[in-house]
Amino acid sequence: MKKWMCMNCGWIYEQEVGDPEGGIAPGTAWEDIPDDWKCPDCGSLKSEFDMVEI
Q1: Rubredoxin-like domain spans which residues (predicted)?
Q2: How would you list the strands of the sheet with 2-6, edge to edge?
Q3: Percent of the chain, pLDDT > 90?
């Protein structure tokens, strides 16, 4: 299963969960998240996330 992890703090974006507090609805694909979205834990930009397989 592919997930996206913040390389600064380790927070993992899960498509099934999204980031409702950040305006990202559950089920939102990584590709559909705006480039200016930030990590809810540390504020890193989307560009600082890498895909990981869990």
Answers
A1: 1-52
A2: 12-13, 2-6, 49-53
A3: 93
Q: Which residues are annotated as a binding site?
A: 6, 9, 39, 42
- The structural domain count of the chain equals 1
Q: Which domain holds residue 28?
A: 2-53
CATH number at 19 reads 2.20.28.10
Average pLDDT, the chain: 95
**Residues of the binding site for Fe cation:** 6, 9, 39, 42
